[in-house]
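Internal tracking record. Fields below are filled automatically when a chain is submitted to the structure queue. Please do not edit lines marked as system-generated. If the sequence contains nonstandard residues, flag them in the REMARKS field before resubmitting.
Queue: standard
Priority: normal
Entity type: single polypeptide chain
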Amino acid sequence: MRVHQSIENYDHKEQSSVLTIGTFDGVHIGHQKIIERLNEIKDGTHEKSMILTFFPHPRMVLDHSNDIRMLTTMDEKIQLLEKFGLNELIIEPFTEEFSNLTALEFVRNILVRQLHLKKLVIGYDHHFGKNREGNFEQLMEYGELYDFRVEKISAQEIEKVSVSSTKIRRAIESGDMETANKYLGYHYLLTGTVIKGQGFGRKINFPTVNLDIKETYKLIPKKGVYVVKVNFESKTSFGIMNIGYRPTVGGTGQTIEIHLLDFKGDLYGKNMQVEVLKRLREENKFKSIEDLAQQIAKDEKTAREWLMKFK
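SYSTEM-GENERATED OUTPUT FOLLOWS
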């Protein structure tokens, strides 16, 4: 999959495309259905399968009062989309000027003239253009005018609940990782760099690595203790992760700390990706350091027992 940081940088504009459009935050199972259909249509043709997405998220640009958090960073989104065998991913910078394109201008000037659209696959609730004025019916009209086909994917449902990025965000914010991961179709990811902490965990015989996530827009799960799978330098380990403020030792800022169950080594400065598997408990303030250490030992035992079934 080739990645282009803008439509302007896309350098194969002469070849017609099978295209879908959207922010694809989370690349969840509903998105995956659209992409699978995109590839089905593309197979057997000379057209390229293509996703046109946007960064920042339109709501970040148009609604400054909205402190929305994203399920995926752009690097994570690219990583997830890589698995689907797409030809092209275009990441168009979203600006207020871009948002003022009318539905007709967007279709005519960008999709048809620049991306040579021949087939468009969209979700059931897709809107586009200035003030989200464009809809499926308009796309059908434009398709007849500019000679492209449009196909709409119906709402995907799990146990009669339609999947959406918003519902997944709510699940993660409440710590319900089982529901979030079911809707995502994979384990929720946290990607960052290992930084030095205060070394407190090592003093109580539970050393931890501290994960720093540079993207401030990334959604962090609810405070608490989680079972995680950790990937770094082509290695895999499991661990218990605490998200919170470390009230027992007088912590002030939120940290993400991971105690690896079966790994010893120096990871400072290394990139790490964490798969969040299950929430074990709330973050608590304990009466003593000894009580905290005892609870971490219990958490480790619980995590190992759960992982025996998970593996």
